[in-house]
Specification:
The structure is a single chain. By secondary structure, this protein is an all-alpha fold. The protein has 10 helices and 2 strands; from the N terminus they run ααααααααααββ. Residues 280-288 have low confidence and may be disordered.
Length: 324
């Protein structure tokens, strides 16, 4: 049994790694992947990248979260005194998992039936396969790739490679979604500064500032949702992508800001400690400075070497040279 569990764990790790690698290829070589699927289907089944295939995965995740809360409440209500048997808990977990899987199973069966009834069965089968592969990539590495790309986009936006991420996004979406101005970076930078300084305000001040940051983020997302909902149908897709890009890069700026501030503070403290240690460790040897032609600096033996005796000057600490 343990061997089976180990093999399943290794297989899941391998599956996740392959999913992340495919997500990277999807971002870097979307046109080739799109062309390959369209060629296999014999028709154009993929035009541009869309998050619509993730709808089943997202709804399933939300259902799983709701069923987890329901399962916890049921366990507290039924066995709050701690008298539950292990078998009963397994049954409760199994029921919650089964109810969660009802919706994705229904969606899969519906898609299969649609493929069997379609006029172009080959194209529908490849479209289903494409959606499955996209969901697999999104589940295994898509979220991580989005976070990594947000940091890469922010860092590269200040270099000569600033067009790397926007050009790939244009290839995937078919429109320019990256804003020309970077002024919205200040939102993430200010939130990062506030988050750092909240650490010195005590628990109460930190909680208040945390609420302020959270409210600011929710307001930012709410304003983005309002802009998208009130846009014209032809601009809605572009605005949705643009605001999603801005939210992710703002999060990246926020994280980079507080990391840089903490690194700067740590380096400043280290410099102060080293400077204090260096001044305190002199032992009074440099209290006086002897200036004469008989002293030189020996890079091997140290400072204050006398040319006449070829040794350290014994009188340098008194400020008097016996050979002058």
């Amino acid at each position: 049994m343990e061997i089976i569990i180990i093999l399943l764990a290794l297989f899941s790790q391998l599956l996740g790694l392959c999913g992340f690698v495919f997500s990277c290829f999807l971002f870097l070589k979307f046109s080739k992947i799109k062309g390959w699927f369209n060629k296999k289907a014999g028709t154009k089944i993929v035009s541009f990248f869309s998050f619509r295939p993730f709808r089943t995965l997202i709804i399933t995740g939300l259902l799983g979260f709701v069923m987890m809360i329901v399962g916890l409440l049921c366990s507290v209500w039924l066995w709050g005194d701690g008298t539950s048997a292990e078998t009963q808990l397994y049954w409760l977990v199994g029921i919650c998992v089964a109810l969660t899987l009802v919706y994705p199973a229904w969606r899969v069966v519906r898609r299969i039936l649609h493929c069997s009834r379609a006029e172009n069965k080959k194209a529908e089968r490849w479209r289903l396969f494409y959606d499955v592969v996209i969901n697999w990539a999104g589940l295994c590495g898509g979220l991580l790739l989005l976070v990594v790309l947000s940091f890469v986009a922010v860092i590269l936006s200040f270099t000569k490679w600033s067009n790397f991420v926007p050009s790939r996004l244009y290839e995937m979406v078919g429109m320019d979604i990256v804003p020309e101005s970077k002024t919205y970076y200040w939102v993430g930078a200010v939130l990062g500064v506030v988050a750092v300084f909240s650490q010195w305000f005590g628990p109460d001040g930190e909680d208040v500032i945390g609420y302020m940051v959270g409210i600011s983020v929710l307001a930012f997302i709410g304003y983005a949702w309002y802009q998208v909902r009130n846009a014209t149908p032809e601009d809605r897709k572009r605005l949705a992508w643009r605001w999603g890009y801005m939210i992710l890069t703002t999060y990246a700026v926020f994280t980079i800001t507080w990391i840089l501030i903490f690194v700067a503070i740590a380096l400043l403290i280290l410099y102060i400690v080293l400077a204090a240690t260096g001044n305190a460790g002199g032992g009074g040897k440099d209290k006086y400075k002897v200036t004469c032609d008989n002293l030189t600096d020996d890079v091997i033996n140290g400072r204050g070497i006398c040319k006449i005796t070829n040794s350290r000057c014994k009188m340098r600490d008194t400020g008097v040279c016996p050979y002058d």
